[in-house]
């Protein structure tokens, strides 16, 4: 089993990419994320803690963080799908990386 992290700039094209991944049978935990630089610049007085209040004041999602659990034999397929929909991260800014899960139990 592999864990694949995908980080995409929060655009409508990124959400379309997630729709396509879902249509191809992939599932992930999806979180809104914000870069450290933006978090500090947006709330310079509160830069030690990021609270729900920050989400209430922001209308847009800066980044989307997805965590996929993927079988070993599907890892290259999902990575190729992501490369295709992001045009190798040229059309949608972001990054991905994966690693082995040493100890896994569950029903995914």
Keywords, please?
108 residues; 27% strand; globular
Detailed description of the structure:
The chain has 108 residues and is α+β, with helices and mostly antiparallel strands. 34% of the residues lie in helices and 27% in strands. Strands 2-3-1-4 form a four-stranded antiparallel β-sheet. Helix 1 (12-23) packs antiparallel against helix 4 (75-86).
Estimate what percentage of residues fall within beta strands. 25-35%
Biggest sheet, open or closed, and with what strands and sense?
A: 4 strands, antiparallel
First-last Cα distance? 10 Å
Could you list the spans in which at least 5 consecutive residues all have pLDDT below 50?
none
Report the C-alpha radius of gyration, rounded. 16 Å
Please give the share of residues in helix: 25-40%
Structural class designation:
alpha+beta
- Mean residue pLDDT: 85
**How large is the count of helical segments?**
4
The sequence of SSEs as H and E is: EHEHHEHE
Identify the overall geometry: globular
Strand order of the largest sheet: 2-3-1-4
- The total beta strand count reads 4
Task: Summarize the helices and strands and which ones pair or pack.
Layout: E1 2-9, H1 12-23, E2 28-33, H2 36-42, H3 52-57, E3 63-70, H4 75-86, E4 94-100
Antiparallel strand pairs: 1-3, 1-4, 2-3
Helix pairs in contact: 1-4
Précis, in short:
By secondary structure, the protein is of the alpha+beta class. It has four helices and four strands. The chain has helices at 12-23, 36-42, 52-57, 75-86, and strands at residues 2-9, 28-33, 63-70, 94-100.
């Amino acid at each position: 089993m592999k864990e694949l992290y995908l980080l995409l700039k929060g655009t409508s094209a990124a959400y379309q990419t997630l729709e396509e991944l879902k249509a191809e049978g992939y599932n992930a935990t999806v979180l809104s994320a914000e870069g450290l630089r933006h978090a500090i610049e947006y709330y310079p007085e509160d830069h030690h803690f990021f609270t729900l209040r920050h989400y209430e004041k922001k209308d847009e999602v800066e980044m989307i963080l997805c965590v996929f659990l993927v079988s070993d034999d599907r890892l290259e397929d999902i990575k190729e799908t992501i490369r295709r929909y992001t045009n190798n991260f040229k059309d949608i800014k972001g990054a991905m990386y994966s690693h082995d899960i040493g100890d896994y139990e569950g029903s995914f």
